[in-house]
Alpha-hydroxy acid oxidase
Amino acid sequence: MTGSHAGPPHEPAAAARERLGPEHYDYFAGGAGEETALRENEEAFGRLALLPRVLRGGTVRDTRVSVLGRDWPAPLFVSPTAFHRLAHPDGERATARAAAATGIPLVTGVAATTAVADVAAAAREADPEAVVWFQLYPQPEHEVSAELVLRAERAGCSALVVTVDSPVFGTRTRDLRNGFHDLPPGLAAENMRDLPGAAPGATRDIAMCPAGWDDLARLRELTDLPLVLKGVLHPEDARIAVERGVDALIVSNHGGRQLDAAAASVEALPAVAEAVAGRVPVLMDGGVRRGGDIAVALALGARAVGVGRPVLWALATGGEDGVREALTALREDFDQVLALCGGHRPRDLTADQVTPRGLPYRPMRGERAW
Ligand SMILES: Cc1cc2nc3c(=O)[nH]c(=O)nc-3n(C[C@H](O)[C@H](O)[C@H](O)COP(=O)(O)O)c2cc1C
Ligand SMILES: O=C(O)C(=O)c1ccccc1
């Protein structure tokens, strides 16, 4: 490394910036409003430190975690992000093959530039057992949501992720400044093609619309897939969700792209984990950039963490190989952090091993969520 950077910086974003047109880079990188929530996701991790335990022996580690009946090789998944073909011509197929090759589950979304059937097929080329989940924004017409869920089921997705932090679009400051509001010709949200209410062959716009708990119940009736709620920050919502039979939660502020004043994901996590009290898996995303972040999130009650932008940067700079390398590096970094913390398994990380930086030891409280 050269220059004045202290320690490993987030080169991936800088490298991707060189590759992408400025308006596309800004679309991926940006957040809502003044980008407070965006910044806080990473900075909140920076305000937390780990206290390793020592002399715990053991040379063999097992980083697997169990989520909705499947063993994941590491407590890591790919969060749903829109428009991968803006990042790289191979788009979601490349991401899917890379995730599957590393055994890391992929959440593909309604806003993909590749249809869910093709994303899932690409994942299965790399690993027939690949875990692919589908993320949905509930659409204003129930039959549109129903058709999307059906397509996800047919594609072999094994969970339905419903994003609930987006009753309206966030204000994306950079996109407004750049005048970026449309995909370039040749790219489209392919899942939105040939849906009820649209001309044959045409795509519908993805709506973000306010939904209620009753809408969730309707989705629940549509499918036997496990239902995962994405975008929960308030512990009371977590409690209601569990009572209503949701199968897992993702604590998330949407990568700082919706409510600018939202809490950082990792700061909201402990109270959600406490409210859930182990009844369902609590996942989180937002600001996870290194193994230490994964360890902190696990210690505070997450069973696994998602990454959004790191995958986009890796895709933009290295395509499928880039994503595979980035996911592998993150996984290996976590394994090393686990070892350095005296842990053998993810569950060995506990909240008393996390303390605020710049203050005397003050163990975090944390009902273990798992
Ligand atoms: C460019 C971009 C597009 C996104 N699109 C979606 C989406 O379609 N659906 C969704 O639920 N979340 C979406 N997200 C949010 C991610 O799933 C995730 O919550 C967030 O990126 C995690 O933060 P990180 O980027 O700091 O890892 C998007 C995020 C980005 C950066
Ligand atoms: O940009 C986003 O964060 C996002 O979630 C989204 C939603 C709908 C269409 C495209 C992107």
Notes: Residues 82, 111, 206, 254, 257 surround benzoyl-formic acid (ligand 2) (CB under 6 Å). The chain has a mean pLDDT of 95. The chain has one domain: 30-353. The first strand starts at residue 48 and ends at 50.
